[in-house]
Amino acid sequence: MPVSERLSRLGSGVFARNDRRKEAYRQRRMESAAPLPELLDLSLGSTDLQPPPAALEAIAAALGRPESASYCLHASTLPFREAVAAWAERRFGTRVDPETEVLLLVGSQEGTAHLPLAVLDPGDAALLLDPYYPSHMGGLHLASARPVLLPLQADQGWRPVFERVSDTDWQELKLMVLGFPHNPTATTGEQAWIDAAVERALRHDVVLAHDNPYVDLALEGEAPALLRNPAWGACGIEFFSFSKSWCLGGYRLAFAIGAEWLITALRQLKGVVDFNQSLALQAGAIAAIEQAPDWPARLREVYRDRRDRMSAALDAAGWAVPRPSMALYLWLPVPKAARERGLDSEAFAAALLEGTGVCLTPGNGFGPGGEGWQRLALVHPADDLEAGAARMGAWLAAL
User: Burial letters for 159-192: b for 16+ Cβ neighbours within 10 Å, e otherwise?
Assistant: First the structure.
C-alpha cells in the first residue's frame, strides 16, 4: 500500500535502527553456544537515576482521584503552568504569563516536532544546526519544509557561525532551531551564541526555537537560555523537559515558554493532535520543581564522576576522547583504526555492538555533520561504564 512522500523522507531513524540491532544481539546471545557479553546499552539518554521521591509520591497520591483518569484540556493545566511561570522567574529572573506564554507538552520532542507544522508552509526554509537532534529534522519533513544546515565544527568548539548562512537564505528563512547545551556534541554553549541568534531572528523576522532540555546539566559554566534575552517574547519559543533534570523521561512531561502568538499557534495544532498528560503526572511535575529544586545539582555530581571515570577509562583503552562540558553524553570520534578499515559511523556502531555487546549511537543519525562520531550516554553506574570501556578497548586493540 502507498505511504506519503513525507513519511519516506523521515526514514527509519537512528534510534529505530539501533533498536533492531539491539534486539538482534539479544537474540544471538540467547542462541549462541559460546557465552556473549550482556548488552550494555549506552545509546539512549534514558537515565538509570531515579526521580525525586516527592514527585513519585505526588503522582501516587493523585492517581486514585477520578479526575486523574479523565481527559485533560488546556484549562485544567493552569496549576502546572503557574508552577512553571514561578520556576522561570526563580531560574532566569524572567516573568512569564502562565495564561498566554506557557504550554504543557507530552515531552519536549513532541513540541519541537510539531512546531514547524504550526509556523511553516510547504517549501518554507528553516535553519538547523548540523549535527542536529533527529526530531528537529523530522518536524521539518512533516511540514514539507526546506532545511538549511549550519555546520558546527569541532575545531571551533561547535560554535554556530551565523555568517556562514547566505544572505539569500536569511531572506527566505522562516524558522531557526537551536539547542544549547547541545545534543549530541555535549557542548554547553554560551549565552552570546543565543543572543546573536536573537539579533538575527529580529533582523530577518525569523521564529527562533530553542530546545533546552539540558539547561540544568552544564558541568562547566552556566547553560545559555533564550529566556535570559530580554527580546525572547518578540521572536522566540523555548522548550524545557522534566526528562533530564528530574529523571522523569518515561512520564513524558515537558513545557514550552514563548511569545504569546507562538504558544497560541502550537496550542491550536496540539488541539487536533493530542490531549494533555494526566493531572496525576502534572502533580508529579509540580512537586519536582517546587519540592526538589536541588535535584539537578545532585545529578550533575553523579554525571561529573561518570564523565571523568569513563573518559579516563577510554583513554587508557586507547580511545582518546574529548571531555564534554555538559552532563549525560560523550561525543567520540570514530577511532583511526576503524576509519582505516573503511568503517563509517553506522558500520562502526554495528560492528562494535556485535563484537562487544556495547551499543552506542552512530553520529550520522544526527545529520551529515555527525559522520565520523559516536554518541555515548552515561546512563549506567560508573563501574559498569568502566567495564564497558575495557570491552571496547580490547576490541579496538584487535583491529
Answer: ebeeeebeeeebebbbbbbbbbbbbbbbbbbbbe
Q: Across the chain, which distance is largest between two alpha carbons, in Å? A: 65
Instruction: Using a cut of 0.85, tell me whether the model's pTM lies above it.
Output: yes
CA distance readout (Å), 10 to 137, 138, 140, 222: 8, 6, 9, 34
Q: Which grid cell is 235?
A: 521572536
Asked if 29 and 36 count as a contact pair (C-beta separation under 8 A), the reply is yes
> What's the mean pLDDT in 93-115?
95
| H/E stretch holding 385 | helix 382-398
Collapsed DSSP state (helix, strand, coil) of residue 374? strand
User: What pLDDT score does 190 carry?
Assistant: 97
Span 342-350, average pLDDT: 95
What are the cell numbers at 255?
513545557
Domains within the chain, CATH numbers bracketed: 5-50+295-398 (3.90.1150.10), 53-291 (3.40.640.10)
Q: What is the C-alpha separation between 227 and 95, in angstroms, rounded?
A: 9
Q: Is-contact 210 129, C-beta < 8 A?
A: no
pLDDT (mean) for 15-20: 90
Question: What does the DSSP 8-state code read for residue 162?
Answer: G
Amino acid at 391: R
Indicate the pLDDT class of residue 274, thresholds 50, 70 and 90.
Answer: confident
Q: How far apart are CA 291 and CA 213, in angstroms?
A: 19
Distance from C-alpha of 52 to C-alpha of 30, rounded to nearest angstrom: 36
372, 333 Cβ separation under 8 angstroms = yes
Measure the CA–CA gap between 58 and 74, rounded to whole angstroms. 21
**pLDDT band, residue 294 (cuts 50/70/90):** very high
List Cβ neighbours of 298 (8 Å cut-off, separation of 6 or more). none
Of residues 243, 229, 224, the one with CA closest to residue 296: 243
Non-local (6+) Cβ contacts of 317 within 8 A are 389, 390, 392, 393, 394, 396
Q: What digits encode the pLDDT tens for the residues 24-77?
A: 989 988 888 788 899 999 999 999 999 999 999 999 999 999 999 899 899 999
Q: What is the pLDDT of residue 12?
A: 65
